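Hey, can you fold this one?
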Amino acid sequence: MSSKYAAPLLPPFESKNSVVSLDECLKALPVALNHGSQCVRPKKELNDFVRLDLSTPRLDKIHSYLWLSGTTTPAQPLHRQRLLRREIVITENPDEHLVEDRAVIFVKPLPEYLLSFEFWTKHLDTDKDLHQNACGLLLSYVWIVAYRTDMRIAHESHLLPKNLDWMAWKNFVEDFLEHVGTNTSLHVSKRYRYGELWLRHLNKTYKLSPSSFSMRNLQYGFLSAPMWYGFFIERNVARLFAVFAFISLILSAMQVGQGTLELQEKALFSRASFGFTVAALFLGLVSVSGVILAWMAPRGYRLLSRRGLKRDTAGLA
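Sure. Predicted structure:
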């Protein structure tokens, strides 16, 4: 819930370091934003748009469990992300900002209005939660754009305005850090007490956390898309192959043992070989069935959900 302040909250930088004017940043806003069944028109509903553009409600729900998905260290600069062979993928969802999975990291472009002193004084001066979210997003860019090479990558990836040069950014960051100080927890939202978050752990936390538990979240997790199903199948099939290779090695050794005169006469060895063979066949059947079920269940759930939605729509009509 947003907390309103009677006294205006000050921008985290001086007006002399403002990068864009109010008119320029308003021109950069989208015409419409679809949020679920709601359509927000920034020109007419600017405060609602800014709240959607900066708030992280899904991460706030599971904040007490975020330690399972990340560390309280700043995110690595963009040049380090490139060094780690991570692809920088743009997202406009603040909940997904600095979430990484395998060779991908999601980054939200810095809204131009956060670089405007006039915008802060007119639209971010009364809501403390919104003010902290805005400061947190700026702080994340202090982390990831630390060197001139980071700024070049940010420009190539369309994360920062093209007219923002290195010297202007340095002056802005220095001014911002002077205002925020060393104890950033007083000025930024609780999400930005963590740096990068791991999608694999976020999905598990979002599925099982009491604060976010629902059938939909149990099915989809934090972020679900076809590419993540592919990663799931790839990861688990690789593990199954490793287990089956180990079992095959043992079964081959037992088969060789059954061919020797010494072990052929051992009833205990024969019973052990028989039991292990049956167990291996059962394990293989269960494992393959589990992978197929995990692959088909999401699709079946989506199909049933769509049919239920169509029935509800028909009933309303």
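The radius of gyration is 27 Å. Let me know if you want another pass with a different chain boundary.
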